[in-house]
# Entry
Amino acid sequence: MTDRRITGQPRAAGRRSRLAGEAGQSAVELVALLPIIAVVAAAGFTVLSSRSAADQAVAAAQAGAMALLQDANPRDAARAALPASVRPRAAIRITGRRVLVTIPASGPLAAVAPFLAASSTADAGPEPSP
# Structure
């Protein structure tokens, strides 16, 4: 018996190529994995967003504490240190000479974003004596 693939003779009608079946299975597997890949990518983006929010919270809290040392408005200084897209979401609290900045993470997974909120506190030190 000769191998028809080597000789170039046409295959018998009704027989499927083994490669065609594998390509179809690969397509089905890809379609099945796409939602998982999308969720993993969205989770990664949300985690990176929370890390960025943490860096922004640190910078804003430090700016607010510096403003306290310079007898300026710490809330305005902290808000000015934040990017414009983050300002509406940021919560800035001043307690004595301490500045607390909290920024919720953003991203496509809004359900987990509140759990990834970033907070940072900066202290301007003791009240200066006259």
